[in-house]
Design goal:
Blueprint: E1 5-10, H1 14-24, E2 30-36, H2 39-49, E3 53-56, H3 65-71, E4 78-83, H4 88-96, E5 102-104, H5 109-120, H6 125-142, H7 152-164, H8 172-184, H9 188-205, H10 208-215, H11 222-241
Parallel strand pairs: 1-2, 1-3, 3-4, 4-5
Helix pairs in contact: 2-3, 2-8, 6-11, 7-8, 7-11, 8-9
């Protein structure tokens, strides 16, 4: 058997989460990389750990399951909503949002495992996400950004986030830096400074001709660097898919 699929679980009931861990890992096909009762913490964990699938209840404190799945589009390839709160408003929301994999509690373990397998293999998204991550790393290396720089993982994650949600490129201070700060356990100002240092280092080390091809400026700001890289990689992905 190959590498186990990585699962993140979000459910307010801790006892239930431990029971789910046993069920999820029962065949050896899956491993539970983290579990939490908080929707906000689930979002940060998913962005940091990059699981193959998120299993979430519809009802969570701080950030509900619907908002969680919205925030993880393009970040985590698979999603499964499992809930005992089968009220009419929740069922209508599942239909409206076209959530493909939905499982009411209680359920049989075999049904859960079958849906997890579907979530992990859905539409080739898992492979596509891994390819995008590799493309971002190659592009940063090409323009001269050192991987050992403190700001490198921030830049890499920021580009992936902007590829998934282009509007973030226009909201660095209000949205992107705070999201990165929550994910990496630091402050928005530290994120901004670290990215600035990494961009400066890349500009000193990289090939000027290649840098001009990417950015068309003498020296890009943080926002220009992230947006230009994300746009170029998005166009390359769309071109290869055509």
């Amino acid at each position: 058997m190959g590498t186990a699929y990585r699962v993140l679980l979000a459910d307010a009931d801790e006892e239930y989460r431990l029971l789910m861990k046993e069920k999820i890992e029962s065949t050896g096909e899956f491993v539970l990389v983290a579990h939490t009762g908080s929707g906000t913490e689930a979002l940060a964990l998913a962005r940091r750990l990059q699981p193959d699938v998120v299993v979430t209840d519809a009802v969570l404190p701080e950030l509900d399951g619907f908002a969680l799945l919205d925030a993880l589009k393009g970040v985590v390839p698979g999603a499964l909503m499992v809930t005992g709160h089968c009220r009419q408003d929740i069922l209508l929301e599942v239909i409206r949002r076209e959530i493909r994999l939905f499982l009411p509690k209680p359920f049989h373990t075999d049904v859960l495992l079958a849906l997890l397998r579907r979530a992990c293999g859905a539409d080739g998204e898992r492979q596509s996400l891994r390819q995008t991550e590799a493309a971002v790393s190659r592009a940063l290396h090409a323009v001269g950004m050192p991987a050992h720089m403190k700001g490198y993982p921030y830049v890499r994650r920021a580009i992936l986030m902007v590829i998934a949600e282009p509007e973030l490129a226009h909201a660095l201070t209000k949205a992107l830096y705070p999201a990165l700060a929550r994910e990496f356990g630091t402050t928005p100002s530290c994120v901004e400074r670290a990215i600035r240092s990494a961009v400066d280092a890349a500009w000193l080390r990289g090939d000027p001709e290649l840098q001009r091809a990417y950015f068309n400026v003498d020296k890009p700001s943080n926002g220009v660097f992230i947006a230009a890289m994300a746009e170029k990689l998005r166009r390359e992905r769309e071109s290869s898919a055509a």
